[in-house]
Design a protein that fits this description.
Blueprint: H1 16-19, E1 26-30, E2 34-39, E3 44-50, E4 59-60, H2 68-73, E5 81-82, E6 88-89, E7 93-95, E8 101-103, E9 112-113, E10 126-130, E11 134-141, E12 152-162, E13 165-174, E14 178-179, E15 183-184, E16 187-188, E17 202-205, E18 207-210, E19 224-225, E20 237-238, H3 239-242, E21 251-256, E22 264-270, E23 277-282, E24 286-291, E25 313-318, E26 333-334, E27 340-348
Length: 349
C-alpha cells in the first residue's frame, strides 16, 4: 500500500509537488499489449500506449499534457475522473428529494459543469491500494464542497483485466442524499498523432435516441430519435462525414440501449488508416460524445507536440445531463447507506 500525504479536498493545497517542479505521483500498469500511465492528480489517465509488433515504438492513443501545471492551467478535464457530477446542471441549482433548493458553484456562465470550479479533476487523490495489475485512488469530498450536501468518499480503481482490456470502477458513498454522476474524461486519438484531427475516426454507438440541447448545452425537453439525423451512429460512420448534418456539432448525450447497471458494449471507435480500434463498455444509461474543438497550439503533449483543435474524441459514459432537474431522466440520487458504482471498460484491437 502506498500513502500520499496532502489535503485532497482543497485544490490550492495540491502543489507541494508543483512547487518542487514535480508532478503528482504516477503509476504504470503494463501488459504485452498496453501500458497505462495514471496520475493522482484527478485520478487521470495520462497515457495509454499500444504495442504493435509492426511498429518500432509503442503508440500513445489518448491526449495527455506536458505536466501537472499544464493540466491545472486549462479547463478541458483531460483524462480525469469528473465529479461529483460530470456534465451540466442547469443554473447551478436543483431541488433535492425533500424539495429543498441546493445551489452549486457555477463555472460555465450560470451552469455547473463537471463538479464546479474546484472539481475532482483538480484534486490530489490518495493512492490507497496498488498491485501489478491495478491501482486504487481515494478522495474525500467534505460537506458543502462546491455546494453539495454531505461528505462523500469516492474511489477510482484502474485494473488491467486482459492483455488488451482496461477497467475503471468508480464508487462513492455519501452521508446525505446527493446527486452523483462520475466518469472518465479521456480524449482518444487512435492515430497517435495529436497535431492532427480525430474527426476522421469511425464511430459506432448503441443508441436509438439522443438529447438535443439549447445554447447553454442543457438538454431540451424532447428526446429525439437518431434516425434521419447527423446523430445516427447505429452503424459505423466517419465522424467528419456526419458533421454536415449535425446542426449542433458533437457535444451530446446518447441514450444507450440495454439495461442500466449491466456492463455491455456501448460504442466502438476505430482509425481506418492504422487499423487500431477501441471497444467501449459501461454500466451507465448515457454516453456523452464530444469531438474536441477547443484545443490550441499552446497545449502540448509530453513530447512537445502542439494539439490540433480537434485532436481528441471524448466518449464519456454517464447518466443524462441535468438529471437532478429532470425526473424523467435516469435517477442520479445516491442516498445514505447506498453505494454508487460505475464500471467502464476499454478493449483495444
Amino acid at each position: 500500500m502506498i500513502e500520499i500525504t496532502g489535503i485532497p479536498d482543497i485544490a490550492t493545497h495540491l502543489p507541494e509537488t508543483r512547487i518542487q517542479g514535480k508532478n503528482a505521483p504516477r503509476v504504470e500498469l503494463t501488459t504485452p499489449q498496453i501500458r497505462l500511465t495514471v496520475s493522482a492528480l484527478g485520478a487521470r489517465i495520462c497515457a495509454l500506449d499500444l504495442h504493435d509488433d509492426t511498429e518500432k515504438a509503442d503508440t500513445n492513443v489518448t491526449v495527455g499534457l506536458s505536466d501537472d501545471e499544464a493540466y491545472l492551467a486549462q479547463d478541458s478535464y483531460i483524462g480525469a475522473v469528473c465529479g461529483r457530477y460530470a456534465n451540466r446542471i442547469e443554473n447551478s441549482r436543483y431541488r433535492d428529494l425533500n424539495s429543498t433548493e441546493i445551489t452549486l458553484a457555477a463555472n460555465e456562465g450560470k451552469t455547473h459543469l463537471h463538479g464546479g470550479i474546484d472539481g475532482f479533476d483538480k484534486r490530489l487523490w490518495t493512492i490507497s491500494e496498488q498491485s501489478k495489475s491495478s491501482v486504487s485512488f481515494t478522495l474525500t469530498s467534505p460537506e458543502g464542497d462546491q455546494g453539495y450536501p454531505g461528505t462523500m468518499i469516492a474511489t477510482a480503481t484502474y485494473s488491467i483485466i486482459a492483455d488488451n482490456r482496461l477497467r475503471l470502477e468508480i464508487t462513492a458513498t455519501c452521508d446525505k442524499t446527493c446527486p452523483v454522476n462520475m466518469t472518465s474524461h479521456a480524449y482518444w486519438n487512435l492515430t497517435g498523432k495529436f497535431d492532427q484531427t480525430a474527426a476522421d475516426h469511425v464511430l459506432q454507438i448503441n443508441a436509438d435516441r439522443w438529447l438535443p440541447v439549447d445554447d447553454k448545452l442543457i438538454p431540451l425537453r424532447q428526446i429525439k430519435d437518431v434516425a434521419g439525423t447527423g446523430y445516427d451512429f447505429r452503424n459505423p460512420a466517419r465522424v467528419s462525414d456526419k458533421l454536415p448534418d449535425a446542426e449542433q456539432g458533437f457535444d451530446h448525450n446518447f441514450c444507450l440501449t440495454g439495461d442500466r447497471g449491466s456492463l455491455r458494449q456501448i460504442a466502438t471507435l476505430s482509425d481506418p488508416d492504422s487499423g487500431r480500434s477501441m471497444k467501449l463498455f459501461s454500466t451507465e444509461a448515457g454516453l456523452q460524445f464530444y469531438l474536441a474543438q477547443h484545443f490550441n497550439g499552446e497545449m502540448k503533449t509530453e513530447t512537445g507536440t502542439a494539439l490540433h483543435s480537434n485532436a481528441g474524441i471524448a466518449l464519456e459514459p454517464q447518466t443524462y445531463p441535468n438529471s437532478p432537474n429532470r425526473p424523467d431522466f435516469p435517477s442520479p440520487w445516491l442516498k445514505p447507506g447506498e453505494t454508487y458504482r460505475h464500471v467502464i471498460e476499454w478493449e483495444f484491437g
